[in-house]
């Protein structure tokens, strides 16, 4: 059930190179929208690599607020933030309106692992330009890898343009606004009295969740032997459901997302389900314990930070609190 794979993988493996002429695009644009917050974080290394490759010429298609919240440090020439509607196979959008915004685009890159009629329509509106994506409708089609890590799949696009780029070289944490850091600092001063911090994230879709009682038992067990830690818990649906012997060392966190990331950036340890905070903890290099049920650690797990993964068989029900508590303790032990 458990797995400790502490060796860091770099990603950006061998991919068939794209034509060198694509690097000369004057107005390249990358389409990057996967829906989830964690998906945006998994796209960060690929987008950073593309901005380095195109040196200030790259435009971005995303959702409203993406640039300010997730991609504030990217050197972009432009950003188009549009509306999306979810359907079974991905997302739909107004392809005609988007195509009008892209009239100067001479290279369209997509890191999206989905394809709908809206994407086909957008490509039809741009018949004369080079396009790169994971589906045969693109002029340059890259293989879809739904088994490997999501970061590697997105990074296949810059790696095909410039094969020598390495994912690890572009895996810095998300940039945080000064306001978010001030809020996080104030929160810690007010609520945390210990020198070390365990960040716990329980909130997710029902099918990916772990029993709240087991979260409580794992956290309480860890705190009982690690008095230097306070647990900060993101659990908006579990208000009042965390009875504990350590009420002064289990603190609920109800802050804006960027401020939560700022609190996480200063944590010493992370525990959580497959979620956006797990990916953020990974990019911040926070030692982490990740819990997986219907999704796989191979695709959505921690990639860079020291970690333990617990992989259930379709659900998290078989994962026990005691073994999770032990994994947390191992990560903070000397040499752990």
Number of helices: 11
Question: What is the CATH architecture descriptor of the largest domain?
Answer: 3-Layer(aba) Sandwich
Task: Provide the structure class.
Answer: alpha/beta
Shape: elongated
**Assembly context of the chains:** single chain
Structural commentary:
The chain is α/β, with parallel strands linked by helices and 336 residues long. The strands form three sheets. The protein has a seven-stranded mixed sheet with strand order 1-15-14-13-10-11-12, with helices on both faces. The longest helix has 18 residues, at 37-54. Helix 1 (37-54) crosses helix 9, helix 3 (95-101) runs parallel beside helix 4 (117-125) and helix 7 runs parallel beside helix 11. The chain has helices at 37-54, 66-69, 95-101, 117-125, 150-161, 178-191, 212-225, 257-265, 276-283, 297-300, 321-332, and strands spanning 2-3, 28-31, 59-63, 78-82, 85-87, 90-92, 107-110, 130-133, 140-141, 196-201, 229-234, 250-252, 269-273, 288-292, 307-311. The chain is elongated, with a radius of gyration of 21 Å. It has two domains: 9-170, Rossmann fold (3-Layer(aba) Sandwich), CATH 3.40.50.2000; 179-332, Rossmann fold (3-Layer(aba) Sandwich).
Can you give keywords for this protein?
Rossmann fold; disordered N terminus; 15 strands; seven-stranded mixed sheet; 336 residues; elongated
């Amino acid at each position: 059930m458990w797995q400790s794979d502490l060796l860091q993988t770099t990603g950006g493996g061998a991919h068939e190179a794209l034509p060198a002429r694509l690097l000369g695009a004057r107005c390249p644009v990358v389409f990057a929208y996967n829906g989830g917050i964690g998906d945006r974080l998994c796209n960060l290394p690929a987008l950073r690599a593309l901005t380095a490759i195109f040196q200030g010429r790259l435009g971005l298609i995303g959702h409203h607020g993406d640039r300010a919240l997730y991609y504030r440090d990217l050197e972009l020439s432009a950003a188009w933030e549009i509306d999306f509607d979810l359907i079974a196979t991905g997302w739909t959008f107004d392809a005609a309106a988007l195509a009008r915004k892209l009239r100067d685009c001479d290279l369209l890159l997509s890191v999206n692992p989905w394809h709908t009629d809206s994407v086909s329509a957008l490509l039809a509106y741009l018949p004369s330009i080079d396009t790169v994506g994971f589906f045969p409708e693109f002029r340059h089609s890259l293989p879809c890898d739904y088994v490997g890590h999501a970061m590697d799949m997105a990074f296949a696009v810059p790696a095909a343009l410039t094969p020598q780029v390495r994912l690890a070289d572009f895996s810095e944490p998300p940039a945080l606004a000064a306001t978010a850091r001030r809020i996080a600092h104030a929160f810690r001063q007010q609520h945390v009295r210990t020198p070390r911090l365990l960040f716990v994230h329980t909130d997710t879709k029902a099918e990916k969740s772990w029993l709240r009682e087991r979260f409580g038992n794992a956290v309480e067990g860890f705190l009982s032997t690690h008095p230097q830690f306070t647990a900060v818990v993101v659990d908006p649906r579990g208000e009042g459901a965390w009875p504990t012997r350590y009420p002064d060392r289990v603190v609920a966190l109800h802050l804006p997302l960027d401020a939560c990331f700022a609190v996480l950036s200063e944590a010493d340890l992370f525990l959580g389900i497959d979620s956006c905070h797990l990916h953020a903890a990974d990019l911040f290099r926070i030692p982490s314990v990740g819990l997986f049920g219907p999704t796989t650690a191979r695709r959505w797990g921690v990639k860079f930070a020291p970690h333990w993964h617990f992989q259930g068989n379709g659900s998290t029900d078989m994962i026990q609190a005691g073994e999770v508590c032990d994994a947390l303790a191992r990560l903070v032990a000397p040499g752990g």
